[in-house]
Fold this sequence. Notes:
This protein is an alpha/beta fold. The chain is about 30% helix and about 15% strand. The chain has helices at about 20-25, 35-50, 65-70, 95-110, and strands at about 5, 55, 75-80, 85, 125. Strands 1-2-5 form a 3-stranded parallel β-sheet, covered by helices on one side. It has a two-stranded antiparallel ribbon with strand order 3-4.
Amino acid sequence: MEFLFVYIREAHPSDGWPMESNTEAGIDFREPKTLAERRERANECLVALPLRMTCVVDGPENAVDAAYAGWPERLFVIERGGTIAYAGKQGPFGFLPEEVADWLRENVGRPVSAPAPDADPPAPQASSTSPP
């Protein structure tokens, strides 16, 4: 089983739909326009959160976001053949990590846990602009 973090477009960019709470928290970012800018922002997310999973980056064309309606955040379980086995609701209110963890426990039958917190997070990788 592999977990992926897919960086898509910003939820509340300062040049789009800014939020005062983001500005106050020091997470006031413009929407990245190029793949290189998106990779840089994704890397900042990995460091700040800190996420312990592979990160891939949707291209500026937003093909993955469009295919999966991922904005602003969403959880999926996708089988190796590409079949969507579980689709969570869109965040922020439908972003329920415990719900998908329960689903995995019931359907996969293995304990679900995050990688060790002392592991270095992988560097973000550029994805193709086509969904898996």
